[in-house]
Amino acid sequence: MSKGSLTVYLSLSLSLILSFVLTVIEGARISVIRMEAECVADIGMNSVLAEFHRELLEQYDLLFVDMSYGTTDCKAENTAEHLRRYMENNFIGTGKGKNAAKNWLSLSVDKSVVKEMSIASDDGGNVMKRQAIAYMQESSMEGMIAKTIEQAGELRAWGLETRDIARERENIQEQINEVAFLEEEDEEGNKKEISLDNPADRVNALRGSLVLNLVLGDMDHVSGTVIRPEDYISRRERLKGAGLSPGQRLPETVSDHILFDCYLFDKCGWYGNELEKSFMKYQIEYMIAGEKSDLENLEKVVKRLIRWREAANVIYLFSDAGKCAEAELLALTLTAVLQIPALVKLVKASILFAWAYMESLSDVKCLLKGGRIPLMKTAADWKTGLANIADFSGNIPDGENPGHGLSYQDYLRIMLFLENSERKNMRAMDIMEMDIRTTAGNVNFRMDACFDSYLSEISMSSAFGYHCDIQKRYGYD
User: Fold this and answer.
1) Which of 214, 229, 232, 366 is most buried, with most CB under 10 Å away?
2) Is 323 exposed, middle or buried (0-12, 13-18, 19+ CB in 10 A)?
């Protein structure tokens, strides 16, 4: 009896122990399935980010994944498929052959969906801009930030960007034209109007000319690159993502904007500092002007620069008693025969405006040759004289480079700083697309197909009947 009792007791005990062991094993299986699912999801999502665009990193130090993967098919499903393949290849026991491990989890991916992407062009290009600023924060740019703020503030304080010098000059000319000129008879008794022979008229006659011809002379070295604007991100319909990832700060402070400008000057070329790799040679000028050719961009920037210099030079001339006296003496000489005192003041003003324009052309010529011109001049910095106006035939005097003041690059920095932020972001990405499309395998490259963070929903299941849903957001931060 005792032997039989022991056997029954042992059988009951073993069944309980075996149930406990199997329960523990099954619990371990469930925990390991969950752990493997989490690990495989992490590996897969990191592997997707490891496919960052090499040329974008090489040329612009930006980390983005191209969801088109070098094709014309730009959609999130491509990335979701890459993610699924990476996860499938990392499950335990997927080896083949007699040495393959026994898969006691049997996990597989049911579904991988990319729900959200932070695309480079989102938020008006601020997703791209945020990375560029982060790159520049590794450098010490405090001095450049302070310098740009000071220079832009001085330009605004003098009203050089807003003052309409052309309208002021036209008003003076209209008043001169309204004055009733005397007439004289020639030998045949025909009446004709007495001309003032104002040298300012000869200068003003060239205002409609191509200013680049005036300040550069030889145009053979000017880039002839022309683009199709509709091929690039600023002019075409763009793909849209979810914008900046949660927790990422929008670049909106003055320091942020100037740091981004510093990034653009670090990565792009401009007149006198062209980059061999660049498609458009005057890239900074393109971001300021946005025209379809290097020639048009350079001309638009030069015209704006002349406008600034003319406003500054007019302010100086009208404050210089000596130069005002010279202009008045010439005006008196020109109007003496007409005996109209009211005309003297108007002619004097027209001469001063023409003189300021002549000086401005000389200033810009100096800047494009690598010289420096102060924002506001003194008598020591002035280069042209009244004789240059009287004998003007289209040749711009070189004058002496003062050796101090702002360079052409400094003036470009001010223009870029004053440019609309979103427009500047988009034109910067135009430049990136232009340059990267010239490299092998990237003819279809688009900045709005590039993302730096994404949110995925992943469903996995086991052959043993277990199911696991995971949602993760990964990015380069």
Assistant:
1) 366
2) buried
Global pTM value:
0.88
Compute the radius of gyration of the chain from its Cα atoms. Answer: 36
Whether 244 and 122 have beta carbons less than 8 Å apart is answered as: yes
Return mean pLDDT, the chain: 89
- Of 345, 389, 361, residue with least CA distance to 197: 389
